[in-house]
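Two proteins follow. First one:
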Amino acid sequence: MSGPAPATIWHDVECGGYEADLALWEELAVAVDGPILELGCGTGRVALHLARRGHRVIGLDSDPELIAALRERGAGLAVSAVEADGRDFELGEGVGLALAPMQFMQLLPTPAERIACMIAVARHLPPGALLAAALVEGLEVPDDPAPPIPDVREAGGWVYSSLPTAAALGDGEVVLLRLRQTVSPAGELCEEANEIRLSTFPADQLEVEAAAARLRPAGRRTVPATASHVGSLVALLAREEG
């Protein structure tokens, strides 16, 4: 049984249709000089959206399959795809704005890792430029949740379905569980469980950690909830002078 690269297709299935945050990234990008950096860019949901609106974008991700997909999809657009670890990278040029959508900072489990990431970002920002990080604060797990709706996509005769099955709160983290199902053109069904762990911490804590990277609080914005996604708080962090 074979099909598209698993990382690529599952990223498209589970993240590709999300649009609630795009208006905010567009707004922040309007006044920016220089390229825009997207951390955890995946296959380019945000990077390609901004590039199609005339911005030069650098997408950074540690997964080579996702970066290869972004390079292919960004052909003809002002998009650079960089395979690198978000906790330690060097772009060779500065950026005017850095974005961390889809709770990227919460995928880093410790303060030390988040600080390392923000130091790497700050090296590329001029004074006053922003890092915008989307966070989910205090996610609650309902006692009697409504039945979830799976994310589904068809590609080349294959059908991919990702069904949220549970969200468990732990000590300083939330564990999101999904059942991934693949149906081949011949009707063969394959299933696998997927688990994502998000660190849970308030924006206040991220702002304190950001001081080690010489980033200061510069306001907060919100991304509204949708029928299938919780809302986000976006912490804005500005590069200090000097």
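Second one, unrelated to the first:
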Amino acid sequence: MHIRTYRKAVRTTVVVTALLGGLLGPLTQTPAFAQLPPGTPPRPAPPAAPEVSARDASILRKQHADKPDGMAIGAGFVFFPKIEVDLEYDDNVFRTRNNRQGDFIVRVRPGFVVSSDWGEHSLEFFATGELARYADLDTANYEGFSTGFKGKYDLTGDLAWTTDADFSRTALPFAAPGLFGFTSGRRTIVHVFSASTNLVYGGDPFYGRIGPRVRRVTYVRGTSFDEDFNIYELTGRAGYRFTPDFSVFIDPSYQIVRFDRNVDLGGVRRNNHGFDVRLGVAYDVSRDVTAEAGVGYFRRWFDGGGKPEDGLSFLARLYWNPTDNISVEAEARRAFTQYRLATPTAAALGNAVETYFGARVGWEPLEPLLVDAGAAYGRYTFSGSGNKENYLFFDAGAKYFFNPHFYAGPRYYHERRFAKPSALNYTDNRFMVTLGAQW
């Protein structure tokens, strides 16, 4: 089996899915474009293949202490529990330009992963909870969780069937793209269900994947108007490998969006459908460099008529390890995305074209210590309204592993929004210490 080729095919993603998953999936206060890197330790991984990509070898993703052994359960499964506690100060909780309100927050995140250790095929179950309590601003408190599974069935040496599904209760950030106006101090809560299945072919020289995904978003709290919607999409990739290190590919996708209430508060019909297609190249030199870049075109039609939304689409990723203890990761993307949020005093402005650039550098000065810093820029242009949002984000921190089971580290976040209208601009600073345990 061409392990390296298969892994490249599996790790490809489609930008529309990633954008929506980034906004609604994580249980965090940080906007989707600014989720740099996750606050939890890496999930225990299966035994490494003889060759690994630069992405897998990155010190930003690898296990920085001996991997916990977990607890054997049943026939061929291992249980990996974990818990994290954040102690944080946020100097602008509601992300406002004036009348800034700061507060101290305690956030607790328990979770677990159950992974198979079979010779072939794989199955994994996971669950994560999040409980946040503010010292003074009680209306900002929230509870969230996420649970689901993912699996892979090896049909042949080169062909596999993958499937995944998850359900989450998510507290949206106060300053999520498209969320204009004062929020009355209460968080918008949504329930999100998503599921997908794919056929993945890891042959040589041809490789690819294809499959559908469905997503359901239900607003539980924070809006008096029906913003619930469904997304149906079909995505794929077809590639040809000229050499073991260089290949070309095409990424097509088609998406249908259906709202329970098609006409929004402004009288605009918002159901839509459209495609995004990109041509690209991929370059992989084992542990040193993994890169891919695709450029194409997107077009979106609205069921209520009017001018379609279209334009340049691109997605590029770079993973570079110049030395054994330094890693660099970068991403750039542009596409049409669904940002549809509302509160009792702020209605969704509509669909947006997102442009994003981000990079992160990690340094491992000694084996149990990781130091990292990242920066990102995100721009959201809302169709038909003339409104724009520009986000700047920076963070820096460290994580020290006392042993395979316990770790801790500080982190600083800086976030800004430059919007049209300018009354919606804000600046926010957060200081946090995380304590974690895993088994």
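SUMMARY FIELD: The two ends are 32 Å apart (CA to CA). The CA atoms of residues 26 and 170 lie 7 Å apart.
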